[in-house]
Amino acid sequence: MKDFITKLKKVKNYPIIVLFLTFILVFTAIDVLTPDKKISELENKYLQMKPKFTLNSFYYNEYVPKYEKYINEQFILRNKWIDLKSRCEYYIGKAENNGIVYGKDNYMFDKVQTINDKQLEKNIESIKNFIEKYKDENIKFALIPNSFEVLSEKLPYGLNLFNQSELINNVYNIYSKYENVETLNIIDLLNSHDDEYIYYKTDHHWTTLGAYYAYVEYMKSVDKPYVDINVLNAHDVEGFLGTYFSKALKFNSDFDKITYYDVNIDKMTFAGKEYKDIYEYDKFKERDKYAAFLYGNNDLTVITNKGSVNKEDISRVLIIKDSFGNSFVPYLTHSYDEVYVLDLRSNSQKVSEIMEMYEFDDILIMYSVNNFIDDINIIRSTY
C-alpha cells in the first residue's frame, strides 16, 4: 500500500503526463458514449457506420478499411477539428484543399489539370451513334463550360487548368458534319456575362441566371418564343453551400443564393408518381438545396402544362442532361406543352423505347464539360 501511495506521489511530479492521459481517457469515454451520426450536414454526405465484424470481411481486407473510416468519420467534435484545420491552413497561405482551388472573391473551383481521354472518346462516340441513329430528329447539342473556364480571371495567378474551350471546339467539329445537329455556343455566351452571378461560388453548377441565358440561346436556335425572366415571379433562398464547400470545408466561405421561379404546370411525373410542382420545397430548407430542382436526378420525368403553350399542335421537347439541366428545365415549361427530361444515370428505360413511344419537336443534349468527360452512363443513349 505504501509503495502504491509513493508511486502516486511520484506521478504528481509529471503534471503534463497526467493531463495528457486524463485528456485521452476523457475523450475516449465521450467518444464511446456519443451516438454515431448517419449524416454530416457540414459535408453533405453519409458517414460510415460501425461495420460488422466477420471472418470473411477480415480475410478479404474489407473490415479494417471500413473501421478506420468509421473511426475517422465518427470522431468526437469532428466538425470542430475540421474547422480548426481549415483555419490553420488558411492562415499559413494554403490555396486549395481536397482538389478544390480557392480563387478571388471567395470563388472555389475544381482543380482539373488532366482528363480521362478514354472515357471522353467513348462518350463522343456514343453521342455520335445517337445522332446517326435518329437522323430525322431535330437535335441540338450543348456543352456547358465549368466555372473555372469562364471565370478564369478569378483563378490564382499562374494556375493552369484544363482548356475546356479547346475541347468544346474539337467535339463540335466532330458533330458539325451531321445536318440534323446544331451545336450551341454556350461558352461565348457565358463569357459575355462573366461579370454577372452566373456560377455559384461554393458549388459546381451554374446559377439559374446562367441557365436562363442558355435557355434563351436554345429557344432562338429552334425558332420558338422564350419567356422574359423579368416577368417571372422570383424567390430567393439564402444560405446555400454547395459541393465545392463540402469538399474543401473552407471556414470563411461566402454563402450562395439560389433563385427559383414559379411555373404554371399541370403535373410532373416520374417513377410512377405524380407531382403538382417541379420543386421539392423542403430541400430548400436542407443542406443540399440544389436538389430541390426537379426533385433531383430521376427516372424519365414528364412535365405537362395546364393549357397549350403554342395554341396549335402539342409541342414536345426531350432534354438529355446531367444535373446542370435541373435548373434549366423550369424555363422550358414556358415554351413547350410537354417537357421530357432524361438523366441517363437514373433512367430505367431503353432510350430506343422512349424514342418509339413519343414524337418530339426538338431534342436537346446538354452536359457540363466535366460530366461529359467522365460520365460512364452516356453510352446508354445508344441502347
Word description of this protein:
- With 383 residues, this protein is α/β, with parallel strands linked by helices.
- It folds into 2 domains: 2-105, no CATH class; 116-382, no CATH class.
- It has helices spanning 2-11, 15-33, 55-59, 63-73, 78-91, 117-133, 147-150, 164-175, 186-191, 208-221, 243-248, 329-332, 351-357, 369-374, and strands at residues 39-40, 45-46, 96-97, 100-102, 108-110, 139-144, 181-184, 234-240, 256-261, 265-270, 273-275, 301-305, 316-321, 338-342, 362-368.
- The mean pLDDT is 87.
- The longest helix has 19 residues, at 15-33.
- Helices cover 35% and strands 17% of the residues.
- The radius of gyration is 26 Å and the shape is globular.
- The protein starts with a helix and ends in a 9-residue tail after the last helix.
- The protein is built from 14 helices and 15 strands.
- Strands 7-6-15-13-14-12-10-11 form an 8-stranded mixed β-sheet, with helices on both faces. It has a 3-stranded antiparallel β-sheet with strand order 3-4-5. The protein has a two-stranded antiparallel sheet with strand order 1-2.
